[in-house]
Amino acid sequence: MLEKKLLFPLQTLYSFRHSAAVNVYRKTKDLDIVKRMMGHSDMIVTLKYLRSLGEYTDDSLRDFMPDLES
Length: 70
Description:
Elements: H1 2-6, H2 13-28, H3 31-38, H4 43-52, H5 58-64
Helix pairs in contact: 2-3, 3-4
């Protein structure tokens, strides 16, 4: 499979997607750009996604969107 030949061990195509999202967010701090780039239909999905990647803490998410459920 082509994917196995191009990637190092522990890398997946999703790891490139994750890296791109984090890099764009870190450079722009623009959540809407990340949301559109990732194809998320809802900003909450993007915020949870960035939280799972360590870009946001639960506290900063609550400050940004107080109604966000964990």
